[in-house]
Amino acid sequence: xxxxxxxxxxxxxxxxxxxxxxxxxxxxxxxxxxxxxxxxxxxxxxxxxxxxxxxxxxxxxxxxxxxxxxxxxxxxxxxxxxxxxxxxxxxxxxxxxxxxxxxxxxxxxxxxxxxxxxxxxxxxxxxxxxxxxxxxxxxxxxxxxxxxxxxxxxxxxxxxxxxxxxxxxxxxxxxxxxxxxxxxxxxxxxxxxxxxxxxxxxxxxxxxxxxxxxxxxxxxxxxxxxxxxxxxxxxxxxxxxxxxxxxxxxxxxxxxxxxxxxxxxxxxxxxxxxxxxxxxxxxxxxxxxxxxxxxxxxxxxxxxxxxxxxxxxxxxxxxxxxxxxxxxxxxxxxxxxxxxxxxxxxxxxxxxxxxxxxxxxxxxxxxxxxxxxxxxxxxxxxxxxxxxxxxxxxxxxxxxxxxxxxxxxxxxxxxxxxxxxxxxxxxxxxxxxxxxxx
Length: 438
Ligand SMILES: Nc1cncn1[C@@H]1O[C@H](COP(=O)(O)O)[C@@H](O)[C@H]1O
Prior knowledge:
InterPro entries: ATP-grasp, ATP-grasp_carboxylate-amine, ATP_grasp_subdomain_1, PurE_ClassI, PurE_dom, PurK_C, Rudment_hybrid_motif. The protein has helices at 6-16, 40-49, 107-122, 158-161, 166-175, 200-214, 246-257, 263-266, 283-295, 311-320, 339-346, 364-371, 387-399, 403-430, 432-437, and strands at residues 2-3, 20-24, 34-37, 57-61, 65-75, 81-83, 87-92, 95-101, 128-137, 142-148, 188-195, 220-224, 235-243, 273-277, 300-304, 328-334, 351-356, 380-381. It is α+β, with helices and mostly antiparallel strands.
């Protein structure tokens, strides 16, 4: 609501309730030109701090957001519209600090955010890039916050993470070329704004220290804007880190920002496969999955998680595995082997179940407990005690997006064939009795 004097501002406060967001009509960007007022008293001081009513002010109801989201939208001269993946923007003191792509939000929220952004840009005129900023509120709504008709900070990650960057896309749109593919070519990206930490030389020194560290981070690209003057909180550049999962790029950013980070921390290798088992008594079987993954150089972790003895741990492991960058879970258990199924019920990741032969019933109990899953919750079950196959199946699954792993799997199969052929030749040459006796 537009406000012209204190009276109308107070009226707005009564109508919307506090806190309120007070915004200046002009020169409001990067934390400038807006202020939060938590009470009537704060409203007067916020108005004064923004330079009074002469600059043109309006107040907005505070949006109780869970996350701030943004969608880069492009519209061509022919009015065709494409949307980039929804990102999460994290602000510090009203300045964009970090952008995570894609945003970790439920699929329905991401669909809704894209729809709102699409509709917002459809209602406007012009060709080129539009950045649509949104709030995801605690009651599951998506509120439109702002539309910036230009390439935007929330889209800088697209330079490294999307098939067509927002800048190339803008040029394509305004000159009337076909629009490019806005989808991500890397599973995850994080963009960190290099804000001035101090005035003048000291600020340049601090920024360059961080840049120096960033250069040794795998997947990181530094952008320095070469602005002549360094000021506190001024956007001086940004660093984008791309990688195979949000967990990985976040951990790389964290090690970059740590004061005492040394080079080796940057090379953090996150496990891609989680091998879990109901008891340490399963380890002699489950170690075979780990052996295969080590042979294929696939980073993995090995944990004891019991569905019955440590149900809370099982729940938290299964709920968070995908956020930590785990891509596949191999779960082994014996007896009433509920671990693979219960984990599959809680994670969106593929789960491979290994029935472990426990002391009674020869493993048939484990096999049936794992394989007879209800419709809707799949577990890929391998043969009793065959953790080797669980490891190999996991490698094949990863090979879908990894040509190197696929080639190594092909080599493994050829080696296996040669091994059998060598044995067959020996059997044929020596005869079965001699073969058995040596
Ligand atoms: N089903 C189950 C739940 N928690 C452990 N188990 C399984 O029980 C078997 C026997 O475990 P323990 O040797 O610790 O008694 C192991 O195969 C283990 O996976």
